[in-house]
Amino acid sequence: MRRGVRSDSPGVVEATRESRQEASTETDRQAAWWQDAVVYVVYVRSFADSDGDGIGDLDGVRSRLGYLELLGVDALWLTPFYVSPMADGGYDVADPRAVDPVFGDLDTFDALVRDAHAHGMRVIIDLVPNHTSDQHEWFVQACAAGAAGPERDRYIFRSGSGPDGQQPPNNWVSAFGGPAWSKISDGSAGEASQWYLHLFSPEQPDLNWNNSEVREDFARTMRFWLDRGVDGFRIDVAHGMAKPAALENMDPRAAESADTSAYFDPRFDNDGVHDIHRHIRAVLDDYPGRMAIGEVWTFDEDRFSRYLAPDELQQAFNFLLSQAPFDSDAIQEAIYRTLDAAGRAGRLPAWTLASHDLSRQVTRYGGGAAGDRRARAMALVQLALPGAVYLYNGEELGLPDVDLPPGVLADPMTRTRTDARGRDRARVPIPWEGTEPPYEFSAAEQAWLPMPADWSDRTVAAQLEDPDSVLSLYRSAIELRRTVLDSTDGTLEWSTAPAGCLAFRRSGGLVCVLNASGAPVPLPEGEVLLASAAVTDGTLPTDAAAWIR
Ligand code: GLC
Q: Which of 74, 311, 315, 465 is deepest in the core (most CB within 10 A)?
């Protein structure tokens, strides 16, 4: 799909009125800090360890706030730090209103929020409404109660199918592979064991959002953290939660698709989910200036835009850009569709190229020197786009995926999907300083995941001193974005560009050019504000991007 106007002749890049893409509306223009924020995603376990156990923690984050201020981000998103058996890195929550001792306690959390605010940064925390841990007291009670007990109604229990109920209730598969149902032994004599639904690991039973206690408890959790001063929430699996009453079989092909709208997939994106988002929003509306961003895996523009209705989420992740290969057509299409999807709701997008669930961009774009160059180029593309940008810790250092030995993997996906290398490869701790692992991440000899021996030139300390480092590029881009772009103007105009390139113009006269063509291209006239690779004689090398004015 090609929507931008472009000429195939190399040379001049010109803005064209016809290709102007407007995502800005009255809703967006109303001051809202999140709409063009740069948010830094802290994978707490891997960011900084303050107590020498090899695992990152809240005090570790606190000790590095100066770095984040230097980087120039507006807010942090902290991945889950609640009490958890850590079957899925803390996304299996046993107590959503308490801090797991491995990360600190409530006092540490309060101090972190206070200090982040003092450094001028807001704090977003991760909430997990779709499921709990199997160690959550509700699930323990549900298993202990008989099949008819009201305790079971907080989760999704069903009788099995087939002779004697020995088969799962339907054909749903877990996002981590294997059946989405597990059988419990309820011990009650004569009663057939029931099955419970888990769209993720068996240690993450899905909640029943038709149960009023589930709704009330989630509101209580939100207020608990809002009263402690958090500025927003990242809503985990925000297209989950609602399940159809009939629990119809899914199209098995949906199991392999990142886009839940590609095949019939009743596990996700049911219409009933919007009522849940209105419930969440009603709580937030009692706290002006606070927000929620949802993790929404649907690439259908209309279905996506429904999550951004005025009484639902303020922002939602649309992962199209993170799924695009390093190809100018694919990237342009992803940008166009993302702007369109958010624009249908009168909002601006939240962009992201990376997360704790995805392969890191350096590796995704080909690895090695080419991967490094392309990831730098894409940093300039994403930071020039209208809307908010969510950076995943380590991307500002150009970290690649790490090939980890099987024995150290903690991701539950690697237990159920033997074909999957899992997500730990993008969760290796941050190298801060020094020449050997664990690079001041921790005082322990070993971090919770082994760190590569060749990261000494990717540490924060090494890169802070190097004006050509990835970190210096991110710092300059974040600063320029703030000074050059007009945050109230969400328009983007596509420009003509040579084949294999893309170009767009933003407010403040900023033109971003990406060269993915495999050969150098001449840049349009103008001052080069920033480039991901050296520009000589007005020529942009391949695998590079530049900001021109
Ligand atoms: C989200 C999280 C992921 C987690 C899953 C289940 O996709 O980002 O890390 O495993 O939800 O909670």
A: 315
In angstroms, the CA 441 to CA 52 distance is 9
128 touches ligand 1 (CB under 6 Å): yes
Going from N- to C-terminal start, the domains of the chain cover 30-132+211-477, 137-197
- Give the CATH number of domain 137-197: 3.90.400.10
| Lookup: tokens for 307 | 């999550």
Q: Is 236 an annotated catalytic residue?
A: yes
Distances (CA, A) of 413 to 31, 176, 219: 41, 5, 30
Of 44, 78, 237, 355, best ligand 1 pocket probe by most atoms within 8 Å of the beta carbon: 237
Helix (H, G, I), strand (E, B) or coil at 435: coil
> What are the φ/ψ torsions at residue 369 (nearest 5 degrees)?
-65, -35
Which residues in 190-228 are b (16+ Cβ under 10 Å) and which e? eeebbbbbbbbbbbbbbbbbbbeebbebbeebbeebbee
CATH superfamily of 30-132+211-477: Glycosidases (3.20.20.80)
Residues 502-532 have pLDDT tens digits of: 999 999 899 999 999 999 999 999 999 999 9
What is the tens place of the pLDDT at every residue in 122-157? 999 999 999 999 999 999 999 999 898 999 999 999
**pTM for the full predicted model:** 0.94
Specify the residue with its C-alpha closest to ligand 1, atom 7. Answer: 237
User: By the 8 A CB rule, do 421 and 383 touch?
Assistant: no
In whole angstroms, what separates CA 513 from the centre of its chain?
A: 25
